[in-house]
Amino acid sequence: MCCLQYLGLFYESVVLSQFGPSSDESLVDNVIQIINSLGENSNGWPITQIDTFSTAVINQQPCSFDNSTSADCLRGSCGGSLLHTTLDCPDSLIPYLWNIRLLSALERSASNRGALLQSTKFKARINNPELNANNPDEILLENRCALNLEYLRYLSNVYLI
């Protein structure tokens, strides 16, 4: 996860975190923790440093930080402030997200950064009838498998062809 984040493939790693077994949500929990820590940066807190090898989050204590003159004040193409991590425009990857907890964390992060268009796209994905928790388990499982296969095809087209 952290290696992909440093390579500038943050949203790719977010989508890949859904591939774990449905009974084990630890990958999703780690991604949500990273999303929340990146969202704090837009409120003036520094980005939490992540140890690449042990994936332990360190330096979680907020400290005084003045970002009025830093590059964090720049605006991205989807609105919202630019961060040191590529959170600018994940529009091509939103259709592959199916975990409601991930979608709501991403929506909250986008709205905190002021990226209202991006936040609206995440909300629209959450309201997708295919992701409705009231659907039978078979339908949810088939949908997840189909989205995972589509995402793997997308990755192979982008990076292998």
Structure, explained:
With 161 residues, this protein is mostly helical. The protein has one domain. Helix content is 47%, strand content 2%. The protein has helices at 2-6, 10-16, 26-41, 100-113, 116-126, 137-159; strands at 49-50, 57-58. The protein has a two-stranded antiparallel sheet. Helix 3 (26-41) packs parallel to helix 4 and helix 4 packs antiparallel against helix 5. The chain is globular and about 35 Å long. It starts with a helix and ends with a helix. 24% of the residues are buried.
- Assign the structural class, choosing from mainly alpha, mainly beta, alpha/beta, alpha+beta, or little secondary structure: mainly alpha
Low-pLDDT stretches are 42-86
Order of helices and strands: HHHEEHHH
Sheet with the most strands: spatial strand order:
1-2
- Tell me the total number of β-strands: 2
Number of domains: 1
The shape is: globular
Kindly report how far apart the N and C termini lie.
Answer: 23 Å
Instruction: Count every helix, treating DSSP H or I runs of 4 or more residues as helices.
Output: 6
Q: Please bin the fraction of helical residues.
A: 40-55%
Biggest beta sheet attributes: 2 strands, antiparallel
Task: Report the mean per-residue pLDDT as an integer.
Answer: 73
Radius of gyration: 16 Å
Strand proportion, as a percent range, falls in: under 5%
